[in-house]
Amino acid sequence: MTTFLEDLWGSIFTPGTTPTLLIATNASFAALQFVLLLLLLATYSIHFLVLSILSAALWYAINWFAQELQIEHARAAAQEQQNSREKSQEPGSDTETEIDTQMPLPKNPSPSTDMPTATGHLQATLSAPDDDLRRRRSLGDSSGYVSTDSEWEQVSEGGSKI
Asked: What 8-state DSSP symbol labels residue 68?
């Protein structure tokens, strides 16, 4: 039982479904169905029947999804095995490293007649200081926000209406 709980705890941090997690899920849903059956027999309330049907549908959906995941993992493993088999049969494929080749970069155009106005305009825009975009000086507050008296008056007027 201890190893099952340790495996269950480890399966929580493992991506995907694990057999231990599926066993715990199925045991939990079986216990839930049993409790709902007991409550149905004790109270004869249709609510427990509806809850039981919803629980059974969710239980089925979880098991169906886990089965589909296993089928897809098996299909992906078979495809990967087939790709590796095909790669090993190709001549000259004794290593699996790839070499990146760099394409030669085009030479930069001279700023003569290609784009004289755009380049000149961009350089003039970047180098010209703009007086309108000066930073405000902070008066001790690290956020740079300075409140005004009118804001405090609005706050005090809003508070006196209560």
From this structure: H
Residue 145 in any domain: the answer is: no
How far apart, in whole angstroms, are the C-alpha atoms of residue 56 and residue 36?
11
Reduced to 3 states (helix: H, G, I; strand: E, B; else coil), residue 53 is helix
Q: Give the pLDDT mean for 50-69.
A: 96
Report the C-alpha gap between 138 and 140 in whole angstroms. Answer: 6
> Domains in the chain: how many in total?
1
10-16: long-range contacts, CB 8 A cutoff, minimum separation 24: 16/69, 16/73
What is the pLDDT confidence band of residue 18, given thresholds at 50, 70 and 90? confident
Predicted local confidence at residue 2, as pLDDT: 83
Determine what percent of the chain falls in helix, strand and coil, rounding each to the nearest 5: 65, 0, 35
> What pTM did the predictor assign?
0.50
Host H or E run for residue 139: none
Q: Where are the alpha helices (DSSP H) in 13-45?
A: 19-43
Give the residue numbers spanning the domain of 70. Answer: 2-88
Q: What is the mean pLDDT of residues 85-94?
A: 72
